[in-house]
Amino acid sequence: MSLLLGVIYLAFISLGLPDSLLGSAWPSMYGPLGVPMSFAGVISALISAGTIVSSLMSDRLTKRWGAGRVTAISVGLTAAALAGFSASASFWALCLWAVPYGLGAGSVDAALNNYVALHYASRHMSWLHCMWGLGATAGPYIMGCALTTGMGWQGGYRIISVLQVALTLILIASLPQWKVRSGGAEEGDGSARPLTLGEIVRIPGAKAVMLTFFCYCALEQTAGLWASSYLVLQRGVTPERAASFSGLFFIGITAGRALNGFLTLKLNDRQLIRLGQAIIASGVLALLLPLGQGVSLAGLVLIGLGCAPIYPCVIHSTPDHFGAENSQAIIGVQMASAYLGVCLMPPLFGVLANHISTGLFPFFLLAVLLAMLLTHERLLRVSRTAQS
User: Fold this and answer.
1) How many CA atoms lie within 13 A of 234 on its CB side?
2) Alpha helix (H) ranges present in 120-205?
3) What pLDDT shows up at residue 374?
4) Which residues partner with 186 through β-bridges?
5) What is the per-residue pLDDT across 115-157, written as a single tens digit (0 to 9) for each?
6) E strands of the chain, at which residues?
7) 89 in helix, strand or coil?
8) pTM score, whole prediction
9) Cβ-contact 20, 194 below 8 angstroms
10) Rounded CA separation 133/254 (Å)
11) Of 69, 115, 124, 281, which is the most buried if we count CB atoms within 10 A?
């Protein structure tokens, strides 16, 4: 099992590598492609749409083929899409390849998260998501090296594609170790009937956990996207300094997840989620109080640290709340809800900031945090009632 766990750690690094590529490469891409800078949103939306679709299909795919094969196929699909990006010379070609890009990402994300939630301790879920952060950090660095050495943005995508191909081969070689028996049936033998979306939503607590995930990802992505603008326009921070502290928000998430793995030895998932929410609230309060730039910058780092335990702990607690037989289906809709939050809420705040003020930033985060807290507590109540 230790060898398989190492493969899963590599897979989570691989999940993060492509996620930050488009943002880091786009300033070098849109000019030669002859499109406005805003068109990055079109590609991002197509990737997100594909991810939502494949997340909703993850229960059916995993019950038919098993987590190992779904992961290998999905990473291979992502590798092919990245190779397609590297060979593209037009914006519309990128849009075409964005579809398999998103389809591959959603399936592997849902399948891996459920497999780890079922078979490994909570600390591994936190450390694995920390590995995702390392991959997301390394992606722009690889792209930057490609751009500075004359390989162009296509070269950056090509390098990541080759790494994904290598991981696909490793995953294929590891397939025999993914075979897990549950109740006498081998995982992925097709004997278990996948749940429909209607059946999933009717499971007690399903809507609450979907809204919890929607709110969490809405908060994380809104904070990451708009923090610099808030600091510059409302707190008088220089753009250069604001950009560096915006990066610390993501470093806070990654470092926080590394620390969270050790905290799981003393605290359970429920306690860690509540602790994360309390730390986020303290960070938002620091943004609200007129105590100077230093306190505002510290507040942003606190929000990142508070975000760290919530995502992995909500996922890891899914089998406990809904049972192992329903966990893959629930995690699939959780992933879809997460990406829906990513698609809708940061642009919504952009509209509010444009028509009212960026000063609404901490109030927006506080409202989303409150909604997340209420829906998670609702989930806990429903879960206790169902188990009693």
Assistant:
1) 21
2) 122-148, 152-173, 197-201
3) 96
4) 181
5) 888 777 778 888 887 888 788 778 878 888 888 888 888 999 9
6) 181-182, 185-186
7) coil
8) 0.77
9) no
10) 5
11) 115
